[in-house]
Amino acid sequence: xxxxxxxxxxxxxxxxxxxxxxxxxxxxxxxxxxxxxxxxxxxxxxxxxxxxxxxxxxxxxxxxxxxxxxxxxxxxxxxxxxxxxxxxxxxxxxxxxxxxxxxxxxxxxxxxxxxxxxxxxxxxxxxxxxxxxxxxxxxxxxxxxxxxx
Length: 149
Description:
Layout: H1 2-20, E1 30-33, E2 36-39, H2 78-86, H3 88-103, H4 108-143
Antiparallel strand pairs: 1-2
Helix pairs in contact: 1-4, 3-4
């Protein structure tokens, strides 16, 4: 089960990386993992450059539009939802780790990408071990013959 969890996490991460469409000419502050917005600069130590002063069409100054990545709502796919639902305790722990690291100024993307595989591996290992234990007990109860005296 831990390997399945890591494969699911990798698949969702690859899909998210493709959807983020990072371009060197347009730096983005946020990384969208599924529908989670992760801030790459939580304390805003490196703000995006200010837009250049350009005159407007009507001649007034400073009306240039700055194209920023708007807040967006992405609907998680079936794979995303399956991962988050099956690994919910790991995602709760991961959210706490990311929040604590964010307050210290650590990149949320880095904190998430380092902590989540470890947490998911541990959660799926524990869940698989518990499932195996329950199934083993059921098999033992069914295979134990009743002793009549």
